[in-house]
Amino acid sequence: MAVAQDELYSNKIFLNAALPLVKVLATDVPSLKKKFEHAHAVIQVSALYPDCPDGKVGMHFVVNDGEWLVHTCLTEDPHIELQFKSIEKLNAFFKGNITLDAIPKIKGIKHAGTLVAFVMTLLKMANVLGATEPPKDEETKALMVKCMFYLLTSGISQLNKMEHPEIHEWTSKSPDRVYALAVNDHPEASAFIRIKAGKSRAGRGEYKRAMPFFTLRFDSYDSALGILLGTMDMLDATKTGKLIMDGGPEFGAQFGGFLLTIGALAK
User: Fold this and answer.
1) N or C, which end of the chain has less CB nearby within 10 Å?
2) What is the mean pLDDT of the chain?
3) Spatial distance between the Cα atoms of 109 and 81, rounded to a whole number of angstroms
4) Residue 12 contacts by C-beta under 8 Å, 6 or more apart in sequence?
């Protein structure tokens, strides 16, 4: 049976935009960082997909003494692998629909300590991205905003590479422009996407080579989470200065629409 297009889109977002956030969590959260201090392992997440030349799709990490490298491709002989039965099962798992049938086959019992730490980090990622209410402490708010900004900008770029009709049309007609997400006084939480003539590249942090063409800016982490989690009205936030559009509102509406597309595919 053919895989539905939206399932393929969701899978690309999870493999190439969401799972790379494991590195952010494993290096930014002290309790998780400590668990990988002496780890040496190649860790892969994959899903069987007969239509692919390799028979499956996936990505992998290389971890050495707490240093992480992210590779959005398969490797032949990982030390640890979480292999799902299908693209749909992988998507269901990361959307929180964890049934017995969606649990992956696990390889890597010889690296039990690192395997457990990796699973704990995945669960932390799921909690961060699947939250419905903002956390109370500032440190977790910062982490959540950073991860969501990274996911959204990377997700748009990944769908453009898959030639998603609306997103690819937007990039194809665009001159060289940068769209950014930012929080006042917190440049470390910024993210951006650069587009030009059908090509795109997502980046973390501030774009410093030039002023972004458009920035969706928030006055605080609370305001960013209010919009990202859907608990704050966008029009009211704009009127009260909690949401600032640095650039034409027509570009903000278009960019915001693509952010919602990514959010819907990842939920």
Assistant:
1) N
2) 94
3) 10
4) 158, 159, 162
